[in-house]
Amino acid sequence: MFTRGLKRKCVGHEEDMEGALAGLKTVSSYSLQRQSLLDMSLVKLQLCHMLVEPNLCRSVLIANTVRQIQEEMTQDGTWRSVTPQEAGRAPLDRLVSTEILCRSAWEQEGARPAPGLGDGHVQGPVSDLCPVTSAQAPRHPQSGIWELDSPREDRGGFHKSLDQIFETLETKNPGCMEELFSDVDSPYYDLDTVLTGMVGGARPGPCEGLEGLAPATPGPSSSCKSDLGELDHVVEILVET
Amino acid sequence: MEVESDSHIHMCWQVLSARTKKWPLADIISTVEFNYSGDLLATGDKGGRVVIFQREQENKSRPHSRGEYNVYSTFQSHEPEFDYLKSLEIEEKINKIRWLPQQNAAHFLLSTNDKTIKLWKISERDKRAEGYNLKDEDGRLRDPFRITALRVPILKPMDLMVEASPRRIFANAHTYHINSISVNSDHETYLSADDLRINLWHLEITDRSFNIVDIKPANMEELTEVITAAEFHPHQCNVFVYSSSKGTIRLCDMRSSALCDRHSKFFEEPEDPSSRSFFSEIISSISDVKFSHSGRYMMSRDYLSVKVWDLNMESRPLETHQVHEYLRSKLCSLYENDCIFDKFECCWNGSDSAIMTGSYNNFFRMFDRDTRRDVTLEASRESSKPRASLKPRKVCTGGKRKKDEISVDSLDFNKKILHTAWHPADSVIAVAATNNLYIFQGKIN
């Protein structure tokens, strides 16, 4: 992580209290710091408290920061130039399950469940004059995944992965998880390789430790996930009747 | 404004925690609120407990206890729950307490955790009935066949007992975490706000609420902004404001439409392009919004400053007060240790001439709007000896550190003052420093 006193600077920003990087006002220094900030932000998004619902405000702010960095990197064209040697500094254990944890985090925010039950078994919110909120809760069981196929290749592998993260966060059907991992798309795995410092495109870190979910093998794996999928399905049926 | 601590009381929470079986973390104070008269001060903590302090009447026979606050009532407001659908715990931490205006001998307050709001009635009992016909003094039922005569029960005085009982429970209306509750000036309704929605309740009705603001996007992937605070106007019962994580405040009029997704007024300060960084949005996120007592102004707290707004001017704030500008160069570290997400509250004094908010290292800041002066004070055991005046503190931002100054790098970011409250009429303030509560009284020299 950051050494003491290391601060992120805007290009051209003059102030430096510690003096650690006083002489290094070069662009590459800025890129390094920006990359570090990006790594840190992704880890923050992933490390969610699994017992209690994570703070949605915090998650949104971090996600917005990640988007900002990604946009700037895309504009700079610097994204393409990132190589594993240059950017891979995060140890493997720092990068815990990406999509799974982020998905859980955002799911717990209520994005996932079906309408009626989706707003937390709501019996409260009612407005005679405007549509009941709970019934409005849109459901995108599959669209998130199908959007993965939309043409985004030009925006860099990172952008695609970020979108994957966000889309998966919204995904209600855990079956999509397997499809996500089955989407053996090189840009995604390049990002993973880059961030985990693993050269050679070995299996991505995210899946490590997640029982039963093998990254390379699509299809239902973890019994836990398929149970959730069935529950989802049952809930959908119940609510729609 | 000089603040003395002549009659300040230092409440040590460690003593109270011994009475419960909760973890040490349960003692962290999460909300502080004076009632309308200022005679009662309620605190909520991470363990779901509410402790109410009452101001002692000034008494000639006890001159030293001029207006001290002592414990009046303690009760468990919320318990931890488990959401089986999401397999998650619901914290019992009290996020907010709001008093209702007093209408009879009893006191009423609303307390809320992340999901459920409760209306509590706090009442005193100083008499009890004796001489029941059907039961003994110890409560055992008497054999009806043995009752040969009837008597009228007599009311006898007893030691004062303060009872708290839940009168209403407003549940199952919030998918996301409740961050604010606000009692309306009509004294019949109140609002509750979570990250994405605001609901309107009637105090008598618990099984129904009206959704008045909904900013949840159709597609959660598009979520970029959440609601951070909301409050009713102190006098106009149809007006409320809510703030967002993007540094905006929207004022809504409930008369215009049932769903107040379209604001009547939109308050946002244009960004200064020269100070833009990746952290600009995070530090612009508003953590608290409060109307002035007059209803003419409102105040917003973001990470580094407090802004006072004139409700008639949406383009920029009337005043901006820097709380701890020296942290601007430390934003990256503060992002790393998550301090940048700390939510500081702010409050007005009774006459709206001064505002107060907390900072780190147990510092809190007061700004006098009339004289443009500000002061930094510290709420800690070392600096709060009985009958001693609080010394103004100063943070050294660079160069030579003067005596008694603290350098930025020595600040303790674990000692944060997030919750402060100001007596509605007097120069009395309550400051919560982690699990300690300090009450200070101000005197003019």
Automatic annotation (TrEMBL), chain A:
<dbReference type="GO" id="GO:0051301">
    <property type="term" value="P:cell division"/>
</dbReference>
<protein>
    <submittedName>
        <fullName>Cell division cycle associated 4</fullName>
    </submittedName>
</protein>
<dbReference type="GO" id="GO:0005829">
    <property type="term" value="C:cytosol"/>
</dbReference>
<keyword id="KW-0132">Cell division</keyword>
<dbReference type="InterPro" id="IPR009263">
    <property type="entry name" value="SERTA_dom"/>
</dbReference>
<feature type="domain" description="SERTA">
    <location>
        <begin position="30"/>
        <end position="77"/>
    </location>
</feature>
<dbReference type="InterPro" id="IPR052262">
    <property type="entry name" value="E2F-SERTA_domain_protein"/>
</dbReference>
<keyword id="KW-0131">Cell cycle</keyword>
<dbReference type="GO" id="GO:0005886">
    <property type="term" value="C:plasma membrane"/>
</dbReference>
<dbReference type="Pfam" id="PF06031">
    <property type="entry name" value="SERTA"/>
</dbReference>
<dbReference type="GO" id="GO:0005654">
    <property type="term" value="C:nucleoplasm"/>
</dbReference>
UniProtKB/TrEMBL annotation, chain B:
<dbReference type="GO" id="GO:0019888">
    <property type="term" value="F:protein phosphatase regulator activity"/>
</dbReference>
<dbReference type="GO" id="GO:0000159">
    <property type="term" value="C:protein phosphatase type 2A complex"/>
</dbReference>
<dbReference type="InterPro" id="IPR036322">
    <property type="entry name" value="WD40_repeat_dom_sf"/>
</dbReference>
<dbReference type="InterPro" id="IPR000009">
    <property type="entry name" value="PP2A_PR55"/>
</dbReference>
<dbReference type="InterPro" id="IPR015943">
    <property type="entry name" value="WD40/YVTN_repeat-like_dom_sf"/>
</dbReference>
<keyword id="KW-0677">Repeat</keyword>
<protein>
    <recommendedName>
        <fullName>Serine/threonine-protein phosphatase 2A 55 kDa regulatory subunit B</fullName>
    </recommendedName>
</protein>
<keyword id="KW-0853">WD repeat</keyword>
<dbReference type="InterPro" id="IPR001680">
    <property type="entry name" value="WD40_rpt"/>
</dbReference>
<comment type="similarity">
    <text>Belongs to the phosphatase 2A regulatory subunit B family.</text>
</comment>
<dbReference type="InterPro" id="IPR018067">
    <property type="entry name" value="PP2A_PR55_CS"/>
</dbReference>
